[in-house]
Automatic annotation (TrEMBL):
Domain of life: Eukaryota
Domain Alpha-L-rhamnosidase C-terminal, first and last residues per copy: 578-641
Provenance organism: Cercophora scortea
Residues annotated as domain Alpha-L-rhamnosidase six-hairpin glycosidase: 245-469
GO biological process: carbohydrate metabolic process
Name of the protein described by the UniProt record: Six-hairpin glycosidase-like protein
InterPro entries (alphabetical): 6-hairpin_glycosidase_sf, 6hp_glycosidase-like_sf, Bac_rhamnosid6H, Bac_rhamnosid_C
Length: 690
C-alpha cells in the first residue's frame, strides 16, 4: 500500500488500528460462538477478490489466483470480491509490447452495472462517475494505488480494462485496504450477536450489522459537495469530529442523515456496538445547529437544510444515544442546543388545530411533505415523550439548574394534546387507519401508521392498533411492503418501522414474514451484494428506487449498503429475542420474547455496565428461557402464555412464582395473554413456562 494513504487521509487512531499496533478500540468479539460464521466482515483489513467474472456475460470464469492477462485494446475482466467492500485498491501489473496505454478501474455494487463506467455516486444525474486510470508510457512493472480522494466507499465488483493500441498487461496482484470501521483492527469484533433456527433471519441480522460497519467511516472521507465535474467523484470532504462517524451509505451520500439514524442507531447498538461513530454524528448536528434552533437535514459536506422531520430525528437520536450509553457529559454539553431545538419545532404547532404545521418540507422521499401531515405528528409525539425523559436524565448545568421536572411535565402535556389532535384530525375512523394529513381522504401512508403504533401514539394492545397492523398488510407485494406515499416503491427504511410496529402490537408472525419477504428477497438476489441491505427498490424488483420522483434516470445511483434499511437487526434482538434496555446503559431492562414460528433464539449485547444475554427455546408444550444482566441492574420479564386463557406455571431459578408473589397476568385478547415478573435483579436467571 502506498504511503500516501497514511499521510493526511486518516487520523492517528485510524493509522494505529490499521497497523494492528496500539489501537485502543475493541479488538475481540464479546460473544464468540458458532454464530460468528454468519458475520460478513472479512478477517483482515486487506482483502483480495474471490473470483473472476466475464464482463460480457457476468458469469464466473475462474477463482481468483492473483494473475490474469489483458492482451488487446478493450479487453476487460471483472474481479468479484464476493461481498460489499470499500476502500483503496492497489493493482500490480506488468506492461509489455509497444507504446503507451492505460489500465482502467471501474466500480459497482450491483452486478447489473458492471462495465467500464462505475455506478453513480457523485450525484447520479449531475455527471457520470466514470473510471480511474493507471497510465503507463513504456513496458515494465507498475504498482498503482488509487488516489486518497478517490476512495471508493462501497462496491462488490471491480472492472479492469485495457486502453492501448499495441500493448498488453499481465496483472499479478489486486488488493483492497478496507476503509470503513476505521478504529477497529478486527472487523469481526462484534459486541452483539443473534442466532435462531431460521438461517434467513440470521443472515438478515448480520447483513444489517455489516451494512452499519460499511457506513462507519473516517470523518475526512465524505462525498465532496458542490458543483460536480463532468465525471468522477471525490470522497475527501469533512463529515464531523472524531476518528469515526456513521453516515447514510457506503457508496453515497456519505454524510450524516439523522432520519437514517432512527433505524441505524438501535441496530448498531445491538450488533456492532460502535457508539463512538454515533456520538460524532450527533455532535456534528449540534455543531452546525442554525441560529433559529433548527438542525440541518444532513451534515457536512452536504449541509442540506429545511427538514422538520429530520430536525426531530436529531432530537430522538439524542435520546437513543443516551439510552444506550448514559453519556451525561454529551447531554450536558448539548442540552442548551436541545432546548433551542424544542422551542423551534414547538413554535410550528398550530394554536387552533393543535397539529404541527410542517414548513421544512425535505423528508425521506415521500410525495407529500408539507402542512399537517400525519407522519410528522407521529415524530413530534416521539420527540416530546423522549424529550420528557431526557429532561429527567439531564444533569444540572448553569443553563438547566432546576427545570428538568417542569420540562417533563410540560412536554408530556404537549404530547398528550398533540395525541388528541392527531386522533381527531388525522384518524380515518371508517377505515381504521391514519390519513396522510388532516384533509386527505384516500391515502393511508405506511410511515404514519407504522409510527403510530411504534411510538405508542395509539396503544399497541388496543383494537385500534390491531386494525392498523392488519390494514398495513394491504400494501404487501411478493417482494415487500409498498409505500402508498411513494407509489410503486418498496422502502426498507419505512418497512423497518413497520416490522417494529407489528412486534409492538405482538403480531410477531407478520413481522417475521415481512422480513423474509423483503430483506430475504434482496439478500438472495444474484445481482445484489448478497451481504448488505439496499436503500430501496421498485415493486417490480428493479433497483430504480426514487427515479419516478424526478431524481434522474440513472438507477445505478441507488445505494446497496444503506443503514436506514437495517431495522430487522434491532427488531430481532429487541422484540423476537426480546431483550432491550429501558434506562441508560441498561440500568433497567426488559426481557419479553416473541416466538412466532421460530423454535429457538439466543443473542446478546454489551453496554458500559457489562454483558446482556438471553435465550429461549420451545420445549414440548412450554418453553425455557434464560436471561443474564450485569449486577446492580433491574429487569422485568414479560412472558407469553402457552395455553391462552389459563394462568401458566412459571418457575424462576427453580422456584415457582405465583400471583401476589411477583407474578402479574394481563389479558390481551386480540394477541394472546402475557404474564410478567417484576423487579428481577441482575445476574443469570432460568425461566421455565408451562
Amino acid at each position: 500500500m502506498a504511503t500516501s494513504l497514511f499521510s493526511a487521509l486518516f487520523s492517528a487512531v485510524y493509522l494505529s488500528c490499521w497497523r494492528n499496533t496500539t489501537c485502543s478500540a475493541i479488538t475481540e468479539a464479546a460473544f464468540p460462538g458458532v454464530w460468528e460464521s454468519n458475520i460478513y466482515a472479512p478477517s483482515s483489513r486487506t482483502v483480495s477478490p474471490t473470483s473472476v467474472l466475464s464482463l460480457a456475460t457476468g458469469k464466473l470464469v475462474s477463482k481468483y489466483d492473483g494473475t490474469i492477462a489483458l492482451a488487446k485494446n478493450g479487453s476487460a475482466v471483472v474481479f468479484d470480491f464476493g461481498l460489499e467492500v470499500g476502500g483503496i485498491v492497489t493493482i500490480k501489473y506488468t506492461a509489455s509490447g509497444k507504446g503507451a496505454g492505460a489500465l482502467g478501474l471501474a466500480f459497482t455494487e450491483a452486478k447489473k452495472w458492471i462495465g467500464e463506467w462505475s455506478d453513480s455516486s457523485n450525484g447520479g444525474f449531475r455527471g457520470a462517475d466514470g473510471a480511474l486510470y493507471s497510465n503507463f508510457s513504456s513496458p515494465g512493472a507498475v504498482v498503482y494505488t488509487m488516489p486518497d480522494a478517490k476512495l471508493r466507499g462501497g462496491f462488490r465488483y471491480l472492472t479492469v480494462f485495457l486502453v492501448a493500441q499495441s500493448a498488453s498487461v499481465q496483472i499479478s496482484d489486486v488488493s483492497l485496504e478496507i476503509g470503513f470501521q476505521p478504529t477497529w483492527s478486527n472487523l469481526r469484533a462484534y459486541q452483539g450477536y443473534f442466532h435462531s433456527n431460521d438461517e434467513v433471519l440470521n443472515a438478515v441480522w448480520y447483513s444489517g450489522a455489516y451494512t452499519l460497519q460499511t457506513n462507519a467511516v473516517p470523518p475526512n472521507t465524505g462525498r465532496k459537495a458542490g458543483p460536480m465535474a463532468a465525471s468522477g467523484w471525490s470522497n475527501n470532504g469533512y463529515l464531523g469530529p472524531g476518528d469515526t462517524i456513521i453516515v447514510d451509505g457506503a457508496k453515497r451520500d456519505r454524510a450524516v442523515w439523522p432520519g437514517d439514524m432512527g433505524v441505524a442507531v438501535p441496530s448498531t447498538f445491538v450488533s456492532v456496538g460502535d457508539l463512538e461513530s454515533v456520538k460524532n454524528a450527533l455532535q456534528v448536528m449540534y455543531d452546525y445547529q442554525n441560529a433559529d434552533g433548527s438542525f440541518p437535514e444532513a451534515g457536512p459536506p452536504l449541509l442540506q437544510q429545511g427538514s422538520d422531520t429530520y430536525h426531530m430525528w436529531t432530537m430522538i437520536g439524542t435520546y437513543n444515544y443516551l439510552l444506550y450509553t448514559n453519556d451525561t457529559a454529551f447531554l450536558a454539553k448539548n442540552w442548551p442546543g436541545y432546548l433551542r431545538a424544542m422551542t423551534y419545532i414547538q413554535s410550528k404547532v398550530s394554536s387552533t388545530g393543535g397539529l404541527l404545521q410542517v414548513t421544512g418540507t425535505r423528508d425521506w422521499a415521500r410525495w407529500q411533505t408539507s402542512g399537517n401531515m400525519s407522519h410528522a405528528q407521529m415524530i413530534l409525539y416521539r420527540t416530546l415523550t423522549t424529550g420528557a425523559t431526557l429532561a429527567l436524565w439531564a444533569p444540572p448545568t448553569t443553563t438547566n439548574t432546576s427545570s428538568s421536572p417542569n420540562l417533563t411535565t410540560t412536554w408530556l402535556a404537549r404530547a398528550s394534546s398533540l395525541q388528541a389532535a392527531t386522533l381527531k384530525h388525522c384518524f380515518d375512523a371508517p377505515v381504521g387507519a391514519f390519513k396522510d394529513n388532516a384533509t386527505s381522504t384516500t391515502l393511508h401512508p405506511q410511515d404514519a401508521n407504522s409510527l403510530s403504533i411504534l411510538f405508542n401514539l395509539v396503544d399497541p394492545s388496543s383494537p385500534q392498533a390491531q386494525k392498523i397492523s392488519s390494514l398495513l398488510l394491504q400494501n404487501w407485494t411478493p417482494l415487500g411492503a409498498a409505500s402508498p406515499e411513494l407509489p410503486g416503491t418498496i422502502s426498507p427504511f419505512i418497512s423497518s418501522f413497520e416490522i417494529a410496529a407489528h412486534l409492538e402490537a405482538y403480531q410477531t408472525q407478520r413481522a417475521l414474514d415481512l422480513i423474509r419477504r423483503c430483506w430475504g428477497w434482496y439478500l438472495s438476489h444474484p445481482n445484489g451484494t448478497q451481504s448488505t441491505v439496499v436503500e430501496g427498490y421498485l415493486v417490480d424488483g428493479t433497483f430504480a428506487y426514487r427515479w419516478n420522483r424526478g431524481y434522474g434516470n440513472d438507477a445505478s445511483y441507488v445505494s446497496h449498503a444503506h443503514g436506514w434499511s437495517a431495522g430487522p437487526t434491532a427488531a430481532l434482538t429487541e422484540y423476537v429475542l426480546g431483550l432491550r434496555v429501558t434506562k441508560p446503559a441498561g440500568g433497567e431492562w426488559v426481557f419479553a420474547p416473541q416466538m412466532g414460528d421460530l423454535e429457538h433464539v439466543r443473542g446478546g449485547f454489551v453496554t458500559r455496565l457489562g454483558r446482556f444475554e438471553g435465550s429461549w427455546a420451545r420445549d414440548g408444550e412450554g418453553y425455557t428461557a434464560t436471561v443474564e444482566a450485569p449486577g446492580g441492574t433491574r429487569g422485568r420479564l414479560v412472558l407469553p402464555v402457552v395455553m391462552q386463557g389459563f394462568m401458566p406455571r412459571v418457575v424462576l431459578d427453580g422456584r415457582e412464582v405465583v400471583e401476589g408473589d411477583g407474578l402479574e397476568w394481563f389479558r390481551r385478547s386480540e394477541v394472546g395473554d402475557l404474564v410478567s415478573v417484576e423487579a428481577v435483579e441482575g445476574g443469570r436467571h432460568v425461566v421455565v413456562v408451562s
